[in-house]
Amino acid sequence: MAESTTKTQQISLSKGLNLGLRRALEDDPKVLLMGEDIGKLGGVFRVTDGLQKDFGEARVIDTPLAESGIVGTAVGLALAGYRPVVEIQFDGFVYPAFDQIVTQVAKMRARALGKVSMPIVIRIPFGGGIGAVEHHSESPEAYFAMTAGLRVVAASNPVEAYWMIQQAIASDDPVVFFEPKRRYWDKAELDPTATPYPLYASRVVRQGTDATVVAYGPMVKTCLEAAKAAEEEGRSLEVIDLRTLSPLDLEPVFASVRKTGRLITVHEASVFMGMGAEIAAKVTEKCFYSLEAPVLRVGAPHTPYPPSRVEEEFLPDLDRVLDAVDRAFAF
Amino acid sequence: MVTSRKGAGGKTAAAKKKAGAAGPDLVQLLTPEGDLVEHPDYSIDLSPEEYRGLYRDMVLVRRIDAEGTALQRQGELGLWAPLLGQEAAQVGSGRAQTAEDYAFPTYREHGVAWCRDVDPVNLLGMFRGVNNGGWDPNEKNFHLYTIVIGSQTLHATGYAMGMQRDGREAAVIAYFGDGASSQGDVNEAFVFASVNNAPVVFFCQNNQWAISEPNERQFRVPLYQRAAGFGFPGVRVDGNDVLACLAVTRAALEHSRSGNGPILVEAFTYRMGAHTTTDDPTRYRSSEELEEWKAKDPIMRMRSFLEKNKYADEAFFTEVDTEADTVAADIRARCVALPDPKPISIFDHVYAEPHPLMDEERAEYGAYWESFEGAH
């Protein structure tokens, strides 16, 4: 095994994904990477940097600029026994592939009564906060989470990214893998010899007693910062990184709410029909008598993603989270 | 079976005329009158037994198709997509494939399925509503029927890219129709196949009608010519001529198998029946047009050919018709015996790995359904 996959090191989230992909390519000759500009350029976020050079053009494939074509050919490669990992360059560009993902990838196994599988990973950088032009800052996760046959996960930090991408590739089900775009350059220490946390499990990332905050992807960091600020104000927030959006793993959330009595869900996607709605419904059903306040949701208004000069106001931040916490205590 | 590009070897004594009526851009080896004609690029030379085999295939396939329509009319199927008129395109291209090749069909490839030895009852499941496909695509290298128009051309291209990486001595054949040629996925498949030099034959059955929309609502240049813009060859074949379809598809598959990349075959044919059993073609096309195409019927011309060359006698034709009725009766019996799936089975194959929501809902809905008297 190469030193890069055994030595403890400081890595960015982008590098974590890069190392995870490298390890998957090394471990299984059937793993292929496909996407626009992922070869010599290494992807627009450099996630695949150096991989085509080391694994060749047949395994790290620069595709034509056509998202439906990328996912549609990945379906064929999966049928032929490969495990394609597809990169969609930006969240807002996944829609041309939506039909192939929802109609073909998600349903193929059920249509074949289990006689074929679709071990495909569809990587999507998501979310805003980078001052991008239109269609580069979206949060389309709920579209995929509501589609049976897909699994949907979101990584929140460099170490999670390293492990989760490998676990997603090893999964025999199709996985839509959301990467928090604005956190690509966050750094953390990775120990590649550690035992990874299971992929389809949510995780308490900060213990607390007064209220529970659930987030995923880029908002986990925001919520951790909010919890720190709340602590200074004398409130103890428990923060849960959801990690898996389909299936949901809500047992840790139920346990937390039974303890704190208050829940705030946080995501960049719109509040209306967002992941928070499903979580709120489930928590209300399972923890009705523990709740001291209604479940409150923090997210985006029901508008298209705005021009970047107003994204700071549009995106949930520390203050919006704390405001929701205040409202939860005001009931 | 021998087919080749350039240079015919004269194995049988069937009389050949010089090419003519079909026109220079349409490969035809057998005229509607049942006479063999020569073509500069394609030829065919089969034994009498092989000629009879193609006739038998087409008769059986037409009979199976008629049974599908009858079963729908009698309420045993929810829907049927008839292939009536397209038997030559499907049997010719179907018999051109080797066992190692892989076919990606639309929902109308009953004739191709027959040639690939797929049990016709498998095809009926989705039309009856007992499954959404259900057969093992790898058993006969025949993928599940695809309903969303054109999607399978990308799957075929990806599969071909897999074959290419594995160094398999085989090619993929992707079926689609004239209507699908307008879909983005089909054009993206052309691009992906071209730049990857993927071993895939794009086999378009141009049956003239995309439900109610004629060719001129889909394209303004002949379809086979479109291939040139994508950087691979295209050829138009008389889709009602089983011999030409066989010769052209065999050459096309060999082209792709040999590392020459994709190729487009446009089989110029006609959907003599409805788009599906819910359709009423009298609303959009003339009976004169239908009559014109009936005169080019793929089965009749093959029968004329067999008769003219004394490759088959009356007893043979009677025997094939009897066999067709037997096959149809068997399919009917097995179709009506197909059991309805148990409601609880809808949870079974959604995911390959354990999934908590599947378990939770299986238990929840299962208990609810079981709470009724006489539940499954």
UniProtKB/TrEMBL annotation, chain A:
<dbReference type="InterPro" id="IPR009014">
    <property type="entry name" value="Transketo_C/PFOR_II"/>
</dbReference>
<keyword id="KW-0560">Oxidoreductase</keyword>
<dbReference type="InterPro" id="IPR005475">
    <property type="entry name" value="Transketolase-like_Pyr-bd"/>
</dbReference>
<dbReference type="InterPro" id="IPR033248">
    <property type="entry name" value="Transketolase_C"/>
</dbReference>
<dbReference type="InterPro" id="IPR029061">
    <property type="entry name" value="THDP-binding"/>
</dbReference>
<feature type="domain" description="Transketolase-like pyrimidine-binding">
    <location>
        <begin position="11"/>
        <end position="186"/>
    </location>
</feature>
<keyword id="KW-0786">Thiamine pyrophosphate</keyword>
<dbReference type="Pfam" id="PF02780">
    <property type="entry name" value="Transketolase_C"/>
</dbReference>
<dbReference type="Pfam" id="PF02779">
    <property type="entry name" value="Transket_pyr"/>
</dbReference>
<protein>
    <submittedName>
        <fullName>Alpha-ketoacid dehydrogenase subunit beta</fullName>
    </submittedName>
</protein>
From TrEMBL, chain B:
<dbReference type="InterPro" id="IPR001017">
    <property type="entry name" value="DH_E1"/>
</dbReference>
<dbReference type="InterPro" id="IPR017596">
    <property type="entry name" value="PdhA/BkdA"/>
</dbReference>
<dbReference type="InterPro" id="IPR029061">
    <property type="entry name" value="THDP-binding"/>
</dbReference>
<dbReference type="InterPro" id="IPR050771">
    <property type="entry name" value="Alpha-ketoacid_DH_E1_comp"/>
</dbReference>
<protein>
    <submittedName>
        <fullName>Pyruvate dehydrogenase (Acetyl-transferring) E1 component subunit alpha</fullName>
    </submittedName>
</protein>
<keyword id="KW-0670">Pyruvate</keyword>
<keyword id="KW-0560">Oxidoreductase</keyword>
<feature type="domain" description="Dehydrogenase E1 component">
    <location>
        <begin position="56"/>
        <end position="326"/>
    </location>
</feature>
<dbReference type="Pfam" id="PF00676">
    <property type="entry name" value="E1_dh"/>
</dbReference>
<keyword id="KW-0786">Thiamine pyrophosphate</keyword>
